Amino acid sequence: MKKVLIISTSLRNNANSEILARETERGAKDAGHEVEFVSLKDKEIKFCKGCLACQKLGKCVINDDANAITEKMKDADVIVWATPVYYYEMTGQMKTLIDRANSLFASGHKFSEVYLITTSADSSQGVVQTVVNGVNGWIACFNGVRLCGFVDGGGLEAPNDALNSQKLLEEAYNMGKNI
């Protein structure tokens, strides 16, 4: 059994990325894993100041919701990021949380597997690659961590569109089931 943390970074209600993340959650739970789902909706996450105090303290000096989420990341075996694609990149709130999780670099972490769920209106090949590159850049900072899989939810234009794609729902569920 693995401890799986799913982080949904969309701030929109009925977000396609969150719908697929919930399917991944269902699959991981069905596989017997311990799963925690965190949504960044209604979370206060301020920008990193670049002070590097987190490297000495093991946590950020900014007192907001990022420290609690970072602690969950530190204790997870698996992290699943779910993000809509904005201008061919991850959401700003996802990148801000990644920056604020800088304390993980010095304080250690358990996670070795990372998964990614993206959704976008554009269904052309390669839309997700910039997000994958960004996540791989973060992963490269940690020894023994790798991107183990992703779901590319391209072609989802309106909220709830993911509910109409049995193929994507199954793909997200199976990714969770196979963690």
Protein model, in words:
This protein is of the alpha/beta class. The protein has a single domain, classed as 3-Layer(aba) Sandwich (Rossmann fold), CATH 3.40.50. It is about 35% helix and about 20% strand. It is built from seven helices and five strands. The protein has helices at about 15-30, 55, 65-75, 90-100, 105, 130-140, 165-175, and strands at about 5-10, 35-40, 80-85, 115-120, 145-155. It has a five-stranded parallel sheet with strand order 2-1-3-4-5, sandwiched between helices. Helix 1 packs across helix 7.
Keywords:
179 residues, Rossmann fold, alpha/beta, globular
Question: Structural class per helix/strand content?
Answer: alpha/beta
Overall, the morphology is globular
The CATH architecture name reads 3-Layer(aba) Sandwich
Strand order of the largest sheet: 2-1-3-4-5
Whole-angstrom Rg: 15 Å
The helicity comes to: 25-40%
According to CATH, the homologous superfamily is Flavodoxin domain
Q: Which band does the percent of strand residues land in? A: 15-25%
User: Low-confidence segments, ≥5 residues, pLDDT <50?
Assistant: none
Main CATH class: Alpha Beta
Contiguous helical run count: 7
C-alpha end-to-end distance: 10 Å
Give the SSE string: EHEHHEHHEHEH
Average predicted confidence as pLDDT: 95
Count of domain modules: 1
- Total beta strand runs: 5
Main sheet, how many strands, which sense, barrel? 5 strands, parallel
Which fold name corresponds to the CATH topology? Rossmann fold
